[in-house]
Amino acid sequence: MTEKTGGTPRVGCRHAGEDRTVVVLIDADSLSGMRVLHTSDWHIGRTFHGRDLLADQEAVLSGLADMVSDERIDVVVIAGDLYDRAMPAGEAVETCMRVLRRLRQAGAQLVVTPGNHDSAARVGTFADFAAAGGLHLRTRISGLHEPVVIDDEHGPVAFYGIPYLEPDPARQALESTGDRVPGAGAVETRGHAAVLTEAMNRIGAELSGRAEQTRSVVLAHAFVTGGQGSESERRIAVGGVEQVPGPVFDGVDYVALGHLHGPQRLDEHLRYSGSPLAYSFSEAAHHKSVWLVDLDAGGLAGVERRELPVPRRLATVHGRIEDLLTEPEHTAVEDCYLSATLTDEVRPIEAMRRLQRRFPHAVHLEWKPEGGRATAPLRYSEAVRGRDDQALADGFVADCRGAEPNESERALLAEALRAVRATESTKTGRRS
Length: 432
What we know:
alpha/beta; Purple Acid Phosphatase, chain A, domain 2; 3 domains; 7-stranded mixed sheet; about 25% strand; endonuclease activity; DNA recombination
């Protein structure tokens, strides 16, 4: 078994003798079985530092339809966070529906579970009707042990969708349905590990009652131990430890994980696809991708990675503003989403507007003066003692910018303070 990032996929069959190993390579085109595309964390409707990403999201995700056709994908699984919020805007819903329609028209069945950003109830609306058209929405905790079964020439493949399980509500839901579910047990402890362990126990019990040749795929949205997070993920620790041990998911052929935004392999059968676009500058080094999972008669036959197009690269720059605006070495990042850290001793005025003249997609700005600025802790009573309103306002500007206000700025501050006093006097007169 080999893992590829591109090119013609090949599978290695290894036979070890007493003193030698024979490797037979077989073209994937000659293989039979089921091919699954694993993606997650679409976050449709998300913005990037105020920039609308809907067009970029639709372009990248619609390109998956071409992959479905070109790579002969049978099933697309989406492991949570379809949307960026529980009540997505109408434009986000329309974009999502267009993408899902294109994937279905390209020939793939779709299996979807909600993540911690989604509303399970909203994602699952009309689930029974959608299934008839090949869109399988697995959103109910009470039904997480009920698989979507899709056949290939080797027999059935059971797809189990575990919706995001917020620990306490999920614990109550699991306990309330325990007497009606084979293999169910009590959720003895709190936290994600406990509810996911119970979910996998129910899936294992259901799977054990199926024909021996049944292969299995589980979709889950969780932070599995060993995974590497980024700044754009919302924490999912609510009343307990957020990480879940990988062995919780043992016993199935493949686990399609969602939640972490970087593509990563925790075990051969246990992987995060990551998000299709970068949603924070901490993801600048990510190679956004999806996993192509091959299942043959014996189970997991191979996994390959396919990188996704990047609508606009992310870049960071660091230095004095005049250098950033003039140095030719920064030409290569002029069309990137840009995060700039300014090191000027004095905070530059209108820095973002000036930067955007050269870097139109500059979206994030920090000021970290070179050498840093010493700031001793100061109590409020000490900060205001013996200082009038003008001195306090001047001091505030100096602390924020690193330089005292000039004469014209002091005049503006004085005018603002006079206006505030006049307003307060008027209010006092009305009350009296």
